[in-house]
Amino acid sequence: MIQQLWNKLTDHIDPVLFALVTLITVLGLMVLYSAANEAMGRVVGQSQKVMVAIVVMFVLANLSPTFIARFAVPLYLIGIVLLLGVAVGGEVIKGARRWLKLPLIGNIQPSEIMKIAVPLILAWYFDKHEGAINWKNFLVAGLLVAIPFALIVRQPDLGTALLVGACGFYILYLAGLDWRIIVGGGLIAAISFAAAWEFNWLHDYQKERVMTVFNPSLDAQDAGWHTIQAAIAIGSGGLIGKGWLSGTQTHLEFLPEKHTDFIVAVYGEEFGLIGVLVLLVIYVLLIGRCMLIAMRAQTLFGRLMAGTFGLMFFTYTFVNIGMVTGMLPVVGVPLPFVSFGGTAMMTLFIAVGMLMSIATHRKLLAT
Amino acid sequence: MKELRNREQEVFWFQRRVFVAAVFMLLCFALLLGRFIYLQLVKHEHFERLAEANRIDVQPEVPNRGIITDRNGIVLASNFSAYTLELNPQKIPNLDATIERLATLVDISQRDRRRFKRLYEEFRSAESLPLKSRLSDEEVARIAANRFQLPGVEIKARLFRQYPMGDVASHVIGYIGRISQREKERIEAQGLSAEYKGSDYIGKSGIELTYEKDLRGTAGAVEVEVDASRRVMRQLSRKASISGNNLQLSLDIRLQRLAEEAFTDRRGALVAIEPSTGDILAFVSKPGFDPNLFVDGIDPQSWEALRDSLDKPMLNRPLQGAYPPGSTYKPFMALMAQEFGIRTREQAIADPGFFRLGNGYWRDDKVGGHGMVNLPKSIAVSCNTYYYQLGAELDIDEWSGFMRQFGFGQKTGVDIDGELTGTLPTREWKAKRFPKDPKVHVGDQVSLGIGQGFNAFTPLQLAYATAILANNGVAFRPHLVKRVQDAKSGDSQLTQPEPAYTIKLKPEHIQAVKEGLQGVVLEGTSASVFKGAKYTSGGKTGTAQAFNLRGQKYVESQVDERSRDHSWYITFAPLDKPQIAMAVFVENGGFGARAAAPIARKVLDAYFDQAALDANWKGFLAQKRDTKAEP
Description:
The structure holds 2 protein chains of 2 kinds.
Chain A: H1 2-10, H2 15-35, H3 40-62, H4 65-69, H5 72-89, E1 91-93, E2 96-102, E3 106-108, H6 110-128, H7 135-154, H8 158-174, H9 179-198, H10 204-214, H11 223-237, H12 248-251, H13 263-296, H14 300-324, H15 342-360
Antiparallel strand pairs in A: 1-2, 2-3
Chain B: H1 2-42, H2 44-55, E1 56-61, E2 68-69, E3 75-87, H3 95-103, H4 110-122, E4 129-132, H5 137-145, E5 153-162, H6 170-173, E6 175-178, H7 181-189, E7 201-205, H8 206-210, H9 212-216, E8 220-226, E9 232-239, E10 246-249, H10 253-262, E11 268-273, E12 280-286, H11 300-308, H12 317-320, H13 330-339, E13 349-351, E14 354-357, E15 360-363, E16 371-373, H14 375-380, H15 384-393, H16 396-404, H17 427-433, H18 442-449, H19 459-470, E17 474-475, E18 481-485, E19 492-494, E20 501-502, H20 507-522, E21 538-544, E22 566-573, E23 580-586, H21 592-607, H22 610-629
């Protein structure tokens, strides 16, 4: 009886994926405890959000990919409508219009929905046209990415826009977008970035963030402060780190955003290069597992979704760590499964749930 | 079948793309790892240093400044700890608005505001300038409660210098003040920055200036761990500051105060020296000033009042005022005449009341003259004719050579900065000073003989010369600091009373002069002032011309108060074994016997009656308490 129930519960849980995600999450809670100066409250709050996210993950894992695919169009449309709503009547917080106040539901950030909705609709779209995909389909798909991208850029939220855009691009890439277009598009993107810089299409704070990557001491008290203090935290950690709960940069408040975007600096300070190596290996294994699921998936929808999520995890991780270590501009991207915050955690676990659904439902479709 | 192959083909293409992506991702991760290796291994030491610099703050520990007491241990300068309200001009965009806002919380007087403005103009780049000192606990609480609305406003516990005796002995003690830009540069040039770390104050005048090195002590340092908002988390290490050395002055503040009181509202100077040691017992410069005004920066109004006053309260008269000695020069002239062998004790002249030489004519004070005048009498009655004659006979360079031994026209080497040299005329001096009339004329010498003319000595020099004379030619350098006490070990270093030098003089020559000086007190020019004194003393009155009458007769009532003659009196007592030697100078006081001698009498009376001196001192303390309690 119990055995049956256990089987029923774990049937659609990918053990490797779950183990890796749990490992990172627990590690994240440990670092969070240190970053919160040993206050349990934040850790408890975050744990609760993780629990809810795991339940959602479990539900999604048990749904078949075909069923999930049915939500592609409505979710995308709802997302677009909400983004339009934000543009018209969104809440302005810290100079950006990102939040929408909805009756009954409360404050939501519609751009977050797009992180799932964009890959979902593209995977659904390509899957529908499987076997006869031509340049027109890519054009339509490109348009499906461009609309939310443009809306999110306008908020302005360059970080999320780039992530949404990246997810869209990954699907196009995995769906077989011509190499020439990829290279050509890359060139055009570079040129248009230069143009945007030259003709002031970017907001000042965005330009500043880009600038400070190249020279953090440019504005030590403001934009560069984050990067400098993070570099000091990580660098002073050395090979073995200062020990858990013993990071001076962390505990004396020199490190800003230490619970959220800059949490890897806390980790680097307290656990050193060895700790960092362990963390990077776990991420590589996690992403590797996603790519394996993608390769084993038996529908185009599954392949595209799993591959895109794997690349999405990679992008989050790379952009976050890249910005904290001063290699990339400071854009608001959290470290997956570690940074404090419920929304990102939920998005990530939804992706994990869908990955599990794809991984565990393939046998049913084998015939 | 074709479709299936197509499908396989598609999966193959897909897997190839995944493979490319995987390679790309691994490269990116390698890049991240490389970055961590760079930060955590290659640049580890650099960042560790920065992290330590972030976390560790070295805060200077300001040393206690040494205490100054008088010879009996009465405190003249001390420190007290108080809260001050300080503003950091660098962090306050609108100073006026902030001051207005603060004025709603605590009372800020116009004087405070003016003083702050003056400080701000002088020290624009300072990080902290006091607005109001000595806050009460309640005021501290009120500001602290509103602190978050007042960036750049700080409450600091500071040590303040306090001069409990107010203007008594103000010219001796001097005062401290904020370190000026020039002083700061000097401190840096001398490599003393470490010792002044955290301290904003430095000795500006008097003992506070001269003994700055002893008094200031050495700054300590406390290493603390701070958080990003510079809040102190814990102390890591501490190098304690070393307090400055305490100074015990030779001054008897009771005698000093009594002497100052004896001047009433007259301007002048008084220096009393213990001849057998060189201890300065009293060092008066009237008027004085309240050194407490300077401690925290003086407000412009008070400063202008002190600076512009005709009474020149900031002038240290005994040290920096040089005046002709008048007849107080005569005893030294008489001693020299004997030593040079051109006069004897008994040798007498007939004084007709004037002295004539060639076309020159010099009048004695007494119409008709003093009759037959020998050496002691010449001093007792202050016979000008005797000294006109003597002056005319001397060689100016031999003359000044003798007087130099008594310290005339020389720096005495007293331990307080800013001493004036004065003028002891020589041939060389005359030629240099008056290139158009370089010769020393006989007429010049006649004037110099009675202590007028080019002669210009400080009251300190006169007191020193009197002390040497009283001590039969044995000179002890006058000093204000008797003992330097190491604040930590308690070891004290006594200023050793060793004779600086001895002037070779014949005892009988000194005796003859002292006889004359006794005559002054018993039957001469100050006899009426010293009637009934319970001690023996020798003295000499003097009157210095404040300005040249060009042969006109001097009638006091017709001359403006500030152009009147200066009044001198030198004295020592008791006669046989002198314990105190003194010079009193009263600016525009008129005849010596009238203004200066009575002050000398009061001081000597008190000096030889310690009970009366104590009673007078207690009266002063009681009066001080009362005036303090009143407002």
